[in-house]
Amino acid sequence: MRRYFESLRQADVSAIHSVPDGIFLVRVDRAQYRWHKQKPYYEIRFAVLKPKHLTGCFMTGRLYCTPRAMWKLSWFLRDFGYDAELLGKNEIDDKALIDLWGVVKVNEVTVHGISMLNFDGFAPAARWEELSVFNETDTRGSEVSS
Question: Taking the complete model, does pTM exceed 0.85, yes or no?
Answer without folding.
Answer: no
